[in-house]
Write a structure and sequence with these properties.
about 400 residues, Beta-clip-like, 2 domains, mainly alpha, three-stranded antiparallel β-sheet, 10 strands, single chain, about 10% strand
Length: about 400
């Protein structure tokens, strides 16, 4: 499909940022690329990185040097390499600044030795700084579980085209790695105007954190400062973003507790995973009122997420809570037209999730296919229920006539 193709004509790759050269529709795939380099667990081994880099053709090595490096303070490894390099570099510069005929034997020897060291260390430092700034996770597994993966499993990769997009706390694009196609795709999550910068989020939780918390994380992890409308206190929309994020944080915390309790009610596996004894299991099912109150909290949370500019998979996460956990339970407490009516609402939300997945992941993704299957299952259940209700209604009419 046209909007699934990567179209480089729609972007202008200026140094440090990427801008649209024409209007781009929501859900357009603007990047589809394989990784240039991949690393297995732990995903940041400097020797593995240098080895992988050395195997690249010259033209692909040059593409890496066009990327922006991370601030050296953003990583203990980068700081260590910089500390090792700085005195050697300083000494070398001092020697170079002198006429060669004035060099002492010690200086000539130092220059020769320093040159050998710098030839090794400086490229390592430059490459590590770009890897730290631009590498992306290729798996959706918590960091504390990654050491259990089969040896050699790639967990981080460098995607050069994707790395060209800068961070924003109000991003207008979404990046997703498809393990089946071994491609990183980037889709626009909303319509983009010609001349507008294309942006991604570099950190998780941007829709739940205040500006100060996000600023601290961005500085610590990448050494960068975000100047988007959610971070610039002088911007007219700043307070709107701050207030919405405070609300999303509180609501997500409350909902997380309630949804966990639902899982405990339903599954012995959850008890085991959380290291809880069986006597911890709640003695009763939640009431219809509790379910309805939490469903409304989810809707309020989704509304605030949209205020923050969220148009991506984070919405699917909370719609899933309604579709899979809350509203089917509420429907069980209803009957007749009210029950069918709620299932129609659930089907509508399943349709919405499928559309978001199409816009953010693409139709070739497993995420889209799974949500499509769920929508079809719900549609089939609803159709059968409507047919059953229709049959009952006709039967009642026949009984009344007789």
């Amino acid at each position: 499909m046209k909007n699934e193709a990567s179209d480089s004509s729609t972007v202008d790759k200026r140094k440090h940022a990427v801008f649209a050269t024409e209007d781009i529709k929501q859900g357009t795939r603007i990047i589809c690329e394989p990784p240039l380099i991949t690393l297995p667990y732990p995903g940041a081994d400097i020797r593995q990185l240098m080895h992988a880099y050395a195997k690249l053709p010259k033209y692909e090595q040059e593409r890496i040097w066009d990327l922006d490096p991370s601030d050296l303070s953003a990583s203990p490894l980068l700081e260590t390499l910089a500390q090792l390099t700085e005195p050697i570099l300083k000494r070398t510069v001092q020697i170079i600044c002198k006429p060669k005929e004035d060099w002492t034997k010690e200086e000539a020897k130092d220059f020769e030795q320093s040159g050998t060291v710098l030839e090794q260390v400086l490229p390592t430092l430059r490459l590590a700084a770009r890897w730290h700034a631009s590498s992306r996770s290729m798996i959706d597994i918590p960091e504390n579980e990654r050491d259990k993966l089969p040896e050699g499993t790639p967990i981080t990769g460098l995607f050069v085209e994707t790395a060209g997009l800068r961070h924003s706390c109000v991003p207008n694009c979404y990046a997703h790695y498809n393990p089946v196609t071994d491609r990183m795709t980037v889709h626009t999550t909303r319509a983009i105007a010609c001349g507008e910068e294309l942006t991604l989020s570099s950190i998780a939780g941007i829709y739940y954190q205040t500006a100060s918390v996000r600023a601290s994380e961005l500085k610590e992890k990448y050494g960068i400062t975000c100047k988007c409308e959610a971070c610039d206190s002088s911007h007219a929309n700043f307070k709107k973003h701050e207030d919405a994020r405070l609300r999303t944080n509180g609501r997500a915390t409350l909902l997380g507790h309630f949804l966990t309790m639902l899982e405990i009610v339903d599954s012995d596996k959850v008890l085991k995973d959380l290291c809880l004894s069986s006597h911890i299991r709640p003695e009763r099912q939640p009431s219809k009122e509790e379910l309805e109150n939490n469903a409304q909290t989810v809707l309020d949370l989704i509304k605030d997420l949209k205020v923050t500019g969220c148009e991506g998979p984070e919405l699917i996460r909370w719609y899933n809570a309604l579709i899979d956990r809350l509203q089917p339970r509420i429907a069980e407490a209803l009957s007749g037209e009210k029950k069918l009516g709620l299932w129609k609402v659930i089907l509508g939300r399943a349709n919405g999730c499928e559309l978001i997945a199409k816009r953010c992941f693409g139709e070739d993704s497993e995420e889209f296919k799974e949500l499509q299957k769920r929508k079809e299952r719900i549609a089939e259940v609803l159709m059968n229920a409507e047919e059953h209700a229709k049959t009952l209604k006709e039967s009642k009419k026949k009984i009344i006539r007789s």
